[in-house]
Design goal:
The chain is an alpha+beta fold and 331 residues long. It has 9 helices and 16 strands. The protein has 3 domains: 103 residues, Immunoglobulin-like (Sandwich), CATH 2.60.40; 69 residues, no CATH class; 118 residues, 2-Layer Sandwich (Ribosomal Protein S8, Chain: A, domain 1), CATH 3.30.1370.190. GO terms for molecular function: 3'-5'-RNA exonuclease activity.
């Protein structure tokens, strides 16, 4: 950004990423704070954000910058560095070796795909290189900058960023700076955050359900059917783990990116909706997530709701929040 040499630095920008391993399709929403050096309040300012993706070189001509990527390699989860080429001619010239790797990868996936046929479909479409094709890495308006002797491609200019398949296997860089609103001069040094390489989230595993018959033998429960003239209904009870509590060492066995709310929320919603229950009893529903996510999303599915949050709220991220219980029901 070129702001580091300014003599008007009056504050500093502190940036904390929710996790250091970005996930394709999962929004990165950093926590940003501005601290003033010589007063309690920072002067009127605006924040400028720039996201960059690590530039990579051709897998064949190692000194050439990559401009295209083989999308088949990405789909088949082959080593990402082998998918980059400096030109379409380079890609087509290397197609024979590419085809062999694609077929081997497709056969491997097919053996572990439980007969779903997807991998075999990929294998059959390996007849010629245009069947898979490539994707351009840089658009006409792409900006390439050099930082500490390394080239980076600008991919965003907002606070948040959602990694795409183009970012897979590459690191991201966030540069943040505070700028005087009226004069347009920098008030802080540039804060720099560099992530680990972007990953693709693993496929969800099916739930291991406990059969009721097993409980009959171990506990004294009465499972005899009892009917009512009013009919039947289904109830789901689910503790979704409030983001407030998904912190520290309590869940050290779980990677930080998998605990992040931006990753968990869509998986939770998909599973909850999938049970198609008449009544949903959700615990540890954070107040802001209830208002901004669960209530609008489940209302679309025909649910009404009653929400009761705890009495003592916690101040975090510039707002008061706390968790509670939400009961969604369909009449």
């Amino acid at each position: 950004m070129g702001f580091q040499d300014s003599e008007s630095m009056k504050c500093e920008v502190g940036v904390t990423l929710p996790y250091n391993t970005p996930v394709v399709g999962c929004e990165i929403n950093p926590n940003v704070r501005v601290k003033c050096f010589d007063s309690l309040e920072a002067p009127p300012h605006s924040l400028i954000f720039n996201w960059f993706r690590e530039q990579t070189n051709c897998s064949v001509h190692h000194v050439e910058v990559a401009t295209v990527q083989c999308i088949s390699c990405v789909t088949l989860k082959l080593p990402v560095k082998e998918s980059y080429h400096c030109s379409t001619k380079c890609f087509s010239d290397a197609w024979k070796s590419h085809l062999a790797r694609h077929r081997h990868a497709a056969e491997t996936v097919s053996k572990t795909s439980n007969g779903d046929g997807q991998a075999l479909g990929k294998l059959r479409s390996c007849g010629s290189w245009p069947a898979f094709g490539y994707t351009s890495l840089f658009g006409e308006c792409s900006v390439v900058v050099e930082r500490e002797g390394k080239a980076w491609v600008k991919v965003g200019s907002s606070k948040t960023y959602v990694p795409s398949m183009d970012d897979f296997g590459l690191s991201l860089r966030l540069e943040s700076v505070a700028v005087d609103c009226s004069l347009g001069i920098p008030l802080s040094p540039v804060n720099i955050k560099v992530t680990d390489p972007v990953i693709i989230a693993p496929a969800s595993r099916p739930r291991c359900m406990i059969q009721i018959d097993r409980l009959k033998k171990s506990r004294n429960f009465n499972f005899e059917a009892q009917f009512s003239n009013a009919g039947t209904f289904s109830v789901l009870s689910y503790n979704i783990l409030s983001d407030l509590y998904a912190r520290g060492g309590m869940y050290s066995y779980c990677p930080a990116w998998a605990l992040a709310w931006e990753y968990r929320r869509h998986n939770l919603l998909q599973e909850i909706i999938g049970y198609d229950a008449d009544i949903l009893c959700l615990q540890e529903v954070q107040s802001d997530h209830f208002e901004n996510f669960f209530k609008p999303e489940l209302t679309k599915c025909g649910y009404s709701v009653v929400y009761k949050k705890k009495t003592k709220e916690v101040y975090t991220a510039n707002q008061y929040i706390i968790d509670g219980c939400a009961i969604f029901y369909r009449l």
